[in-house]
Design goal:
506 residues; homodimer; 49% helix; 2 domains; 4-stranded parallel β-sheet
Amino acid sequence: MAASPQRPPVAVLLLVLLSCLTGGLSIPDPRLREALIRLEDSMQAGGKMELTDAEKRLDALLLKMKQEETARADFPPAMHFFKARDLIRASPIFSVLQKMPKGGALHVHDLSMVDVEWVVKNVTYRPHCYMCFTDNRSIRFIFSSQWPKPRPGCSPWALLEALRAKTKNATDLDNSIMNNLTLFTDQDPEVVYPSQDVVWDRFEQTFQALWGLVTYTPVFRDYFYRGLGQFYTDNVMYLEVRSLLPELYELDGSTHDKTFTLKSYQDVTEQFTANYPDFFGVRFISTVHRGVNMSVMTEVVEEAMKLQKDFPHIMAGFDMVGREENGRPLWYFREALSLPQERGINLPFFFHAGETDLEGTDVDQNLLDALLFNTSRIGHGFALLRHPVAKDLSRKSKVAVEVCPVSNQVMKLVKDLRNHPAAVLMLENHPLVISSDDPAAFGAVGLSYDFYEAFVGFGGIKSHLGSLKQLAMNSIRYSSLSPQHQEKALALWNTKWNKFVSEIAR
Amino acid sequence: MAASPQRPPVAVLLLVLLSCLTGGLSIPDPRLREALIRLEDSMQAGGKMELTDAEKRLDALLLKMKQEETARADFPPAMHFFKARDLIRASPIFSVLQKMPKGGALHVHDLSMVDVEWVVKNVTYRPHCYMCFTDNRSIRFIFSSQWPKPRPGCSPWALLEALRAKTKNATDLDNSIMNNLTLFTDQDPEVVYPSQDVVWDRFEQTFQALWGLVTYTPVFRDYFYRGLGQFYTDNVMYLEVRSLLPELYELDGSTHDKTFTLKSYQDVTEQFTANYPDFFGVRFISTVHRGVNMSVMTEVVEEAMKLQKDFPHIMAGFDMVGREENGRPLWYFREALSLPQERGINLPFFFHAGETDLEGTDVDQNLLDALLFNTSRIGHGFALLRHPVAKDLSRKSKVAVEVCPVSNQVMKLVKDLRNHPAAVLMLENHPLVISSDDPAAFGAVGLSYDFYEAFVGFGGIKSHLGSLKQLAMNSIRYSSLSPQHQEKALALWNTKWNKFVSEIAR
């Protein structure tokens, strides 16, 4: 998409050499200086993008807004997202970014797509909903036509309807449920989550708590439909959703297999696109927790190959989830991960890798290994700058990094988002896309908050409308869509983009 | 010193290509993986260093220590230095680093070389020492044979001797003086210094407070002698000291010019090296505060050219000090800075540049401008990763970055030192040296604390004894010493190094 970062400096050196040869200049030639500055600017994401007059007007407006925002004492990207969220909502840049057609969100987990308020106010108010309290102060749910069997490690079940009838203050109960379904808190996040261990533990608890609510078939469909709606409203036209493809259950306790889950996703997607024809679609990346053992991994890979064969239009590929540091490294699973190639079956990988700030550990080797296993993209890749060889391979083979700024901050990899390593990747126009990972767990919605942190935070003053355009286009170019579908998606995005620019610039 | 970071990946791609062509391998060839890992390892600082058997033993010991240290809950590089200092002191790695011959410290400011405890317990106990309290709650000092004239913005002068005689608790008074001479505090540094503005303001106040004490001729000489002693004891054999070359004064109020100051430095250095013949020496970089106007800058540059001509053996060159964001950018002073070249006079520059976390501002342009003015090294260069063109120029023209980890953390550019941008520079073996900037202001001594943060913090598990050796050798190779003196210094360092290795490995 742009020249490699190695090339321009050669031109630079030539310029420097020329200026030395022509000699006699005491002050460094201002034209040379200007050329170097422009060269550096042109190397960044979108640095070579030609802007129309309308785009230039919008760009000037954005620059002014950004300069004002950067001058604030309470600069949102420097603050924890939980404290910054209200400030971001009030920001004029955020309002532009919400309206902006952002293309696709390529790194989103299915069980954290929908705001937890809806889950509490809608889902938990449905009939037959039971709740229990776990020994480690979390909660679990189940929908059941009969009184459910006791759950180990949990208090006796309570029917929520009955509990609410007995409770004086239903709002308190709802808030307490809500707190268990998301990391977001009004308290000081540094105090509530003092370490990565604590925040990861609480994070996994929220999924456990959501599980019984969301894997109930009717809820599952509604939840996903609402999730698509929230991204669509946020002007995201395409999604690649990572999913454990949970076994769904019915009120009588019967369960379905993964195929049923994937089919349900397909149905809901078709229903959604029928209602909103300018939504481009969804593809799925089937996942497994990296804590499993080798035989489970082998099974899961076999299953994924079958799904990939049976649902080629909506299956994008395979990935592992869970904290890298707590699970086994990719290389440990090398035999299972080699099955597709051994059998000549296509199963694209979309590995999380380098979501760590430890350097030199086994886990830190995941980045290089993901590339050796021909991963199609890299999930997070937070540690990529620390791996010059992996970084170079990722750039040269156009393996895009899925950067999730809010997630990385909440999960305590970086405090001030101006210092996110993607600042460097953006300045070098490294292949990357912006995504939101688990918006509901972080108190975010859709994709705009992450675009805000990328554009205003680590994009610095230098990133401009061309950078935003590049990021949106990247999300289609680096998607799992076939080249023909990419062209179609780009054409659709382009129409939306031009409408957006002319409306805002007006 | 090592291959450019661009070259190895070509080899990598060849290997990848070869492995694809030979084909048939389902699991990525473990030999290829091993080769890529080794390639990445070899690209880091010291990655190509051949180690002797004794060095290998020491290296294994260091690795074990580092792994144990990294596993700690209270991992010092992740904490603020003020809280980490005691832990670092107790660390077995620190004890090795103290003994290690570190070569030179190339970025040290003269008025922050000596622990403030000595300043209080020795200097302020000398006769004729007066103190006053400023309106903004700092203190000022003067030595005078007569009662000194009132100082604007300050309380009436008090003779310290008399004040101490009247005070019930002299320790409290001494501690309160000490607190005004350093940023170091036992309180929570995040609370005491909530922002860069506050910490910079307090930082400049400490120098104002020290000024009247240290610029008194007899103290000046003792202070510097003690400063050399502290670095020498910390196994630093050579220094390049930045100095405003303050006008020194006598008890009768008479003052001397800058030449006298430089000569005093020369005398003390000669005296010190006579007493400690294995100390290699000191060179000076004359500085000016970047807040001055153009005519002052012109004067100062003229003066520096003269000093450079008159003291070629001890003058290294010229630099500007003070917070980059509060002063004028280098480009503003371009005419003054071009004088030496215009007149064909040699005045090497050692510019502070990129000591900022703002991106895209005028100040952020200092990095490129420093290089355009042919700076010999870059002071701090914290923002270098955000300037791919400047980074490439610095690498290709071997303009080393002076990395000062403790300083950058205390001055609030980075919180967790594992995330210091020099992590990337070290992994790419970018020309760099480790230095301590203003150890006394940060509660540090010599250079070992900064080596600790570099080696254990941003060096990660990967950096090893070869990296330390490289950093020490860099400090000679990138010094302002002539090639012949560099060879001499390297030979001396080498003897010390071999002695160190054999003693520790035993």
